[in-house]
Design brief:
Helices cover about 45% and strands about 15% of the residues. It is of the alpha+beta class and about 375 residues long. It contains 14 helices and ten strands.
């Protein structure tokens, strides 16, 4: 995430590798972001300035310090990119660079970064976009990944299905050496898993506004005029599971619904010449009047949509090319009973905590085995 946003990467550290002192250290960008994401509700409710009051809990004051560190990191990155642009240095292709270019367009036209009607972005708008990308790109994707992996753990047949595709596409190529251009367009089954996960468990219920004027809404042969400045949150669950659009199995996890097979073409897996892998196509949702709005829709759909899809598919490739996963059975359970219990947990124990997520993921104990 930090590489895509700032062009700077940090080593991965798992939760079990965090020391007690490191978890409370908000002096680095990574730790600051972690604290902000973990405790974002007090930040939204109280506002940043109020968090520094000495009578508030220690965790709130730590959250305040984390916001200062994150702001400082954004400011340094922003000013550094501006200086590099002024020197005509070669800039990396990351989000901050793109936003700085947009902010410079505003400066060129208005002579300052404080205007509100320029064509570029103000400095505060740059900071706002960076935070939204970090928040949405981290928590929303992580929650969907957790649910998706658990859903796959209940369906060994789908694991084999995507593993077949992964190994056919990456025959003779190490996963870490594969390229986006060569591999991603040829992994429709993996992308189907992403879309099916988001269809059943949409991470963010995005509100839409009618804006400064009333907007017409067509309902069959009738038209309803919605007043101006009205916020509307669509019923994502109903839309994404309506049998009219998704068939009799609309409540089931079936990624194959997103695949269009091509019976006239196939590409052979060189390592298994007797098992040709069919050329398949991903079934894109319609651009207009779509029953799928997992990343919202229209001109203001989620700007991180593609990033999330590529990130999710990349993880599937890294995991399921050589491994398979299953829930660990409890005493007296066989594998089938364990899968049924996990599926029931996903359905019952998934809820909203600002975003849709598994409320007790620690109860979903999984076992990974090499194929």
């Amino acid at each position: 995430m930090s590489g895509a946003v700032f062009g700077r990467s940090y080593p991965f550290r798992g939760a079990d590798e965090d020391s007690a002192s490191a978890k409370e250290d908000s002096s680095s960008y990574g730790e600051a972001l972690r604290i902000i994401l973990d405790r974002c509700i007090p930040l939204v409710v109280l506002g940043r300035k109020n968090l520094s009051n000495p009578w508030l809990p220690k965790s709130f004051r730590e959250l305040y310090q984390a916001t200062l560190v994150f702001q400082e990191h954004m400011t340094k990155a922003y000013e550094g990119e501006k200086r590099a642009m002024m020197r005509n240095d070669k800039l990396d292709n990351n989000l901050m660079t793109s936003l700085v270019r947009a902010s410079q367009a505003n400066i060129d036209r208005k002579g300052s970064t404080t205007g509100t009607h320029g064509e570029g972005l103000t400095e505060q708008e740059v900071y706002g976009n960076v935070f939204v990308y970090n928040f949405a790109g981290h928590d929303a994707t992580a929650n969907s990944l957790a649910i998706g992996i658990c859903l796959l753990a209940t369906r060994p047949d789908i694991q084999d299905w995507i593993a077949e595709e992964i190994n056919a596409v990456l025959t003779g190529v190490e996963s870490k050496e594969s390229s986006y251009e060569a591999a991603f367009p040829r992994l429709p089954r993996c992308l189907a898993v992403v879309f099916e996960t988001v269809r059943l468990y949409t991470a963010v219920a995005i509100a839409k506004s009618t804006g400064s004027s009333p907007q017409p809404l067509k309902l069959g042969t009738s038209t309803v005029l919605i007043p101006k400045n009205t916020f509307i949150i669509p019923n994502y669950s109903a839309l994404h599971t309506h049998p009219r659009y998704w068939g009799h199995d609309s409540l089931e996890f079936e990624p194959s619904r997103w695949i269009i097979p091509d019976p006239h073409r196939s590409t052979t897996n060189d390592s298994q010449p007797s098992s040709p892998h069919p050329v398949e196509h991903f079934k894109e949702p319609p651009a207009r009047n779509s029953p799928f709005v997992g990343w919202s829709g229209g001109a203001r759909s989620c700007p991180g949509r593609k990033f999330a899809q590529v990130e999710f598919v990349g993880l599937l490739v890294g995991l399921f090319r050589d491994f398979k996963v299953k829930p660990v059975p409890l005493k007296g359970e066989d594998d089938g009973m364990a899968r049924a219990r996990l599926l029931d947990q996903i359905r019952v124990d998934t809820g909203m905590r600002l975003l849709l997520q598994m409320l007790h993921p620690e109860r979903a104990v999984l076992e990974w085995r090499r194929r």
